[in-house]
């Protein structure tokens, strides 16, 4: 059994934020990339579990759920277990496999709200505390639902990282949870180097400028590749030069990911490459070991909440026809860039540099 270790590796600001949150009521905690929201979400869930109620740490992404599960393993307190689950999995558990859905396949939140309201008001000790990580990627209706279905709700979010079509601003989350919802913030960037964070700022939309990291490193690289083999060779070289590091390859095309996976499997890497596919029901393409070194290939839709020593944004040319000022594009690159701890490469193929990468000299090296 693990012993209760509730504050390992937290900064004073992170500890203060965590300790200031009451164990009752609903709360929304905001912070920029690298501020430690996911780590704080895990700690918060452990704190709430000590009250004796069931506690769930929810995320929309299954890959983030796997990462949170690993974090919780080092924080578990005997007699106060916490489970990491996806929102999809929790809804099916709470409302059954016949939970109402809309035509697009997502849940019918209005119907579920009516079901939850029918049993609201009791003091059932089985009613769980819910902690939500990356909460900006869920719709306001979801928060109206869990307000009725949870003993308390704590949401960690950053509205500058909204990548899904069904997303919420911090104001919408707070409004859906009720007027008494507490608000807290956590500042700082403990993940990126100053150079990576500065490039990310070029793509940030909205919100106040976050604090720049003190740690410095090399400039990000914008590199043209002649083809996927050239790209795979470069990725393999990065992995070979830093065998203990994690290299995250973020793609916009699953076809590109599959092709790179085949090439990397033939490259004789020290650690077998991993590919995540949300379409896989189980197995090697669904259940990853995100703690071990080596190459991990993920679609950009699954990159939220992750971090890697090196990040390669592999196919930026797929955005060449998109308006470079579009908020959705800028937000996507803000998220992808801030996944990198030490090194960042933005790769492209073709005869012309994608428009959204123009004008970045000074923030990145062109190769």
From TrEMBL:
GO molecular function: 3'-5' DNA helicase activity; ATP binding; DNA binding
Xref: InterPro entries: DNA_helicase_UvrD/REP (IPR000212), P-loop_NTPase (IPR027417)
GO biological process: recombinational repair
UniProt xrefs under Gene3D superfamilies: P-loop containing nucleotide triphosphate hydrolases
Protein name: DNA helicase
Gene source species: Streptomyces echinoruber
Taxonomic lineage from the root: Bacteria, Bacillati, Actinomycetota, Actinomycetes, Kitasatosporales
